[in-house]
Amino acid sequence: MGGGGHNTNLLTYETLVHAISGAAGSVVSMATFFPLDTVRSRLQLEEGRVSKSTLATIHELVAKEGPLTLYRGMVPVLQSLCASNFVYFYTFHGLKTLRNRRNQTAGNDLLVASIAGIINVLTTTPLWVVNTKLKMRGIDQAREPNNNEYNTLYDGLVHMWKYEGIKKLWAGTLPSLALVANPAIQFMTYESIKRRVVASFNGLQPPAWTFFVIGAVAKAVATALTYPLQLVQAQLRHGHKFQNLPPNAGTLQILLYILKKQGITGLYKGMEAKLLQTVLTAALMFLSYEKISRFIFRILLHRPQLR
Predict the structure, then answer these.
(1) What's the pLDDT score for residue 139?
(2) CA 280: distance to chain centroid?
(3) Which of 17, 65, 118, 202 could form a cystine bridge with 69, CB 3.0-4.6 A?
């Protein structure tokens, strides 16, 4: 496929192009569908909020808090997503290149995607913890006046490190590691369907919309399978508000508590917004990623070797 050649070196131009394209694609798609992410986090984290349809929740938030509330915390989310997807795509394609001597299989993709996911979680969890805090700040201001002390990702990281300790920056790491299954299932599904689709076009490039559809299907499968864990992860990152639970309650305690109090539907609260947001975002991200990487590879291939 690319301009860097399949050698056994992680530092190829090809791997770098995939990483830049993945990061850029994720920023384009998240910026487009950001209000859906706001709805998802508000439904997940506000226990008293009635679970309405996505459009009804957007309408309610705009009526009560103004349209800007839908974009609260967008800049740090885009910064984190850019860093996170760069790490993920770089590791995924780097490891794939190393293993490329054998034919690619779904099992192979799942293994590589899982390793990439674990590396990604361990390096970028603090960014997402600060993000969740920034996003929910408007609601929390009355409860935590000292929460005003930071507005940016960097300030938030420094503030939490100083006042809450390094451990708090990795809150929710356990469900995040379990949630490595989400992008791993997503990438395995995406790569498997893509291989079949590309083969069926007999060497021709499939139209762009096919990547949008494949991306959507892959993400829908992954999200539906792992949603309850995502709900708990958001609670752990934000600091749960459940009255009868200790503040340091773990993943299993929170899962069982929600199940007991709200039933099985409680574990899927906000899933419509999450599915809508992640499926559309992932679909647009894969479409942008394929377009951007193809464009960069075309430029690289028409230039003298860069090495």
Answers:
(1) 59
(2) 12
(3) 65
